[in-house]
């Protein structure tokens, strides 16, 4: 199993699109930073003009903490899309290059082969989210400095510098669970459809529909808890005044269950299918 994981890591690092994905994330960060530097202050001053007369803020409102929060909101659609493209390619390339049959002729089981791909995909996802968190916070604070964080999540909420950094870090941790869910789904879709273009289209549709359904209220807390599109937005719960740790924990556990179910579907399809 260890050898299979090492091989999958090697193959992932050999793909040009792996590095293109990291560059794309980096470029997107730079674009957001440039837009924030060019127009952010004017927009923020307009939104908070009256509040400035009532509240005292430490430092500039347009600061590294706010920019990091904006990056979080901007990248939670673009990031899973990029990750789903990279991860699904790990499996689709095996089908399209005809290497899958040769690999399975070796003394390894199908579940070990597919498990290694799921594990490496999840590890890659966590590393990318860590990269995003470090670069987002680092560049934002380098260019804009620190200060109070003001966010609007149901209502305006303010956090001082220390609390803002803590909550941003927790948001990235929770977000990594969501990203792993999307990458596992994309791997399962690759097992199902086998072809790169088909898999990418279906993965993109799945992601778009998930984002559109985030705001849907099913009228019941229990139903909302099991409605997976709403679970993908759990990281936002760290930006309410009082963090509901039990709610966040339950939502992340349920999302993990969905991740395992998606992987189980992939194993079931892969074990039943003849490899042509």
UniProtKB/TrEMBL annotation:
Alphabetical keyword list: Membrane, Transmembrane, Transmembrane helix
Ranges annotated as spanning the membrane: 18-37, 66-87, 118-144, 164-193, 200-228, 248-270
Record keyword Membrane present: yes
Top-level taxon of the source organism: Bacteria
Protein name from the UniProt record: ABC transporter permease
Species annotation: Aureitalea marina
